[in-house]
Amino acid sequence: MDTSEIIGNRKQYLLKRAKKFYPVIVFLIILFLAAFIRTRNLPLLQDKYPGALDPYFFLREARTLISQGSIPEIDRLRYVPIGADNRIEAHMTSYAIAYIYKFTHFFDPSFTIEKSAILYPVIAFCLSLIPFFFLSKKLFNENIALISTFLLVISPAALQRSMAGFADKESLALIFFFSSFLFLLFYLDQGSFGKKSLFALLTGMSLLLLGLTWGGIQFVLLTIAVTMILLYLTDKLSLQDEVAYIFVILPLLLLPHFTLKYGSMLGMLTSVTMFPIFAIAGVFLADVIINNLPCIRKEQRPVVIFLLLGILGIVLLAVVSPARLLDIGQKIYAQFIHPIGTNRLTLTVAENRQPYFVEWLSSFGVSLYLFLAGGIILFYTLLHHLKAKMQLTACFIFLLLGLLWSRYQDSSILNGTNIPSLIFLFGSLGVFSVLIIIGLLKALRDEALAADIKELNTSWLFLLAWLIVSIIGARGAIRLFFIIPPIASILIAYLIFYLFTHLPKKDKVYRGLAIGAILLVMIPTVLSQMNSSLQQAAYSGPGLDDQWQKAMAWVKTQTPENAVFAHWWDYGYWVQTSGNRSTILDGGNYYPYWNHLFARNVLVGNNEEQALRYLKVHNATHLLIISDEIGKYQAYSSIGADENFDIFSWIGTYVMDVRQTTKKGNITDYIFAGGTYLDEDFIFEGKVFPKSRAAIAGFIIPVANDDDPENMDILQPEAILLHNNQQVRIPISCVFDDRQKLYFNKTGMEGCLRIMPRYLNQKYQQENGAALWVTRKGMDALWTRMFLFDEQMKYFHLVYDDSNERELAYYGGQTMGPLKIWEISYPENLTIDKEMQDRFLSITTPEWLLLEKSSPLLT
Questions:
Q1: Which end of the chain is more exposed for a tag (fewer CB within 10 A), N or C?
Q2: Cβ neighbours of 332 (radius 10 Å)
């Protein structure tokens, strides 16, 4: 063998080896990129401050696991004096943080539990990429798997809940999320019953672990249920598949043994979102029983059994419990229209709000269209051998448009809740469903069609089920956008691969232009997503900012260990974890009625004695209020209001417009521009200005002798009220300036304009450059009197105030200010009767209030 031949053989060998190992190398590079992007914010976190709110709960639980070895059944730092039942919570995240700490601390004693909590989401997300890669590979091939993994890594929508510091449930959940789907496909793909059973059991175990981690298991269960129904109706399941399915659901029956998060066994079996996966087992059982009946042909059996069981179930419910049948129908309807619920608590949390299509577009950009295009092409390719492929694909496009465009924009004719929106949504669902049913019924008589249907790709049917369930889920709440990037990444990767493999090979000019067009779309999209993710990660600092860090350090050292803090629920985990003090409320919202009671009796209450009664029942020693309450006032005044929203209000912000300042003689008129609607009907000089329709566009504050500080005098200001394109100037009753309220006698609109400084780019601009409009309702609220107007209360003693460092002011577009803490004392003659105490400690919410706990889909 000559030298050239040896070199040639060696070259071929190296190329084969490189081809074999290139997926591993590329995957490792993608893994490194994932970790690199998600750790850009480590300097901001300083190895000790996780981001957001919920991570502090899991950090505290992890500390408990390290120090005590287990999590107590009752958490006494929460919901004083009752405590929180830890059996309701999912603790897998806390265990993951604790075990990462234990493992790493063994090799590096300087490694802290805080650093473990910070790095946990990055570690968990990177681990989840392994089953995700193999899932994508199982669905298509290695190349698509690598592309889809890369796209998932750089997706901004997948970043927030997987970057350093965001120690929440989702990152860990993704491992079991992808694993359950991967094992499901292996289970359906195996030839022997033993292997089917093994992978079915692995699917069930993954689902069990997912359920113990994240309430989002219901999306996975619905996806699997829809997949199994599709496979059953298309006669793609063998009797071995049906029998082995029992191993999928058996582990799920253990969920109530480990957690009460999903209720009892009966609660799981009757849940609208969990029932289908269990009901399918009943369908399979019926199929196995009548397998040998000669009156029904094998290919007809799935449709016949499914229809018979469905009709039988509806008839039984209609006869035995018509109300239950109606209830199920209403719940299914609600899953499409208000998936997260309509209660006040849920709807006042920003991330629980249902998104409009324009928000989908804002979050995903061009990727949204690429994702949908990939889904449409996949659907068409799946049906390419069917005669009705064009009609079905058109109906599929109509379905996607109905799911997304039926909630296009708040101001649009398709706002998601009006009649045209509902017709579009349910019309698209109905048309698509009817066409599928007609096709299946036709296949009962047409053996050729039945054979064609049976040839449909199993994995792709699963992928389409995943697509539809994900869109339906994500249209329910902005928070659930997190479930879109995985399926979107796979479908975009498939779209890229499909386009490149279907380019004409002979016409090189056309091929070159086509490739150029594809790259022209894809490269800017990828670069934009990469840059967006890098920027988002680099500036994602700790949830507990410098102001909170100082305040909690003070709390930890200057308050008794048995102190109990009263505050709005958002801050509970911070006070418990960083301040190491008990709280009445926190982000778990286990007793939603308490949010109503605290808002009504304390924050928005107008009676100091009533507030003290509520606080006394809950053993409160301190009250904490921060400037964030200004923006949240609308939310908690809604939650605290009665059936008629008696105390529902909000605060408007106004900024001085120096260009409109005018001077006449010794009086200067200062104009404050802004805009806020009235929170109640207002009558002036016989004219009615209706709430939520008439708006205050600004204020005019006349000041006499403003160039002479000693003789300067603020005259009665006027509100500029707009209604029906008419502008009316109305006197207002109060201005708060220089730490005092100035009242005016001229009859007009009750309320107070709270003057404050204005800053721009951290530079001082105007001493009186902005103002907050506090309405008549707001002036009576305890929190505004104490926090905004500095009123002294007999039994609330201000013990912490960082106004010297963070004065209340308008900073470049938002109002920011101090954090204040009052120590509470109680009068000796304070009376609390048994009825009042029971009401203040009640965990049962009155039906009218509709403050049930948030959907488990969010937790």
A1: N
A2: 10
Closest by Cα among 114, 29, 83 to 549: 114
Contacts of residue 178, Cβ cutoff 8 Å, sequence gap at least 6: 128, 131, 132, 135, 486
Number of folded domains in the chain?
4
pLDDT for residue 856? 35
Cβ 228 vs Cβ 220: under 8 Å: no
Which DSSP category does 828 fall into? T
Residues 786 and 775 in one domain: no
> Bridge-partner residues for 742, per DSSP?
735
> Which whole-number Å values give the CA distances from 620 to 243, 521, 565, 795, 822, in the listed order?
57, 59, 6, 12, 11
Cα gap 759→655, rounded to integer Å = 11
- Domain enclosing residue 690, as ranges: 651-779
Question: Do 55 and 543 meet the contact criterion of CB atoms below 8 Å apart?
Answer: yes
- pLDDT at res. 855: 34
**Residue 303 near residue 233, CB atoms below 8 Å:** yes
Helix (H, G, I), strand (E, B) or coil at 240: helix
Task: Flag whether 252 is in a domain.
Answer: no
Q: Which residues of the chain have pLDDT under 50?
A: 851-859
Side chain identity at residue 329, one-letter code: G
What pLDDT does residue 412 have?
A: 85
Distances in whole angstroms, Cα of residue 195 to Cα of each of 207, 310, 482: 18, 31, 33
The pair of three-digit structure tokens given for residue 48, joined into one six-digit string = 């000790």
CA dihedral sign of residues 442, 445, 450, 451: negative
Please identify which residue in the block is written with the tokens 């570690």: 123
Rounded Cα–Cα distance for residues 259 and 240 (Å): 32
Question: Cα–Cα distance between 89 and 60 in angstroms, integer?
Answer: 14
Within a 10 A sphere around the Cβ of 552, how many other Cβ atoms? 20
What is the helix (H) or strand (E) element at residue 258, kind and residue range?
helix 255-258
Looking at the structure, tell me whether residues 598 and 746 fall in a common domain.
Answer: no
pLDDT of residue 767: 85
- Token pair 């989002």: residue: 216
Torsions phi, psi of 830, nearest 5? -70, 120
Among residues 153, 150, 152, the alpha carbon closest in space to that of 35 is found at 153
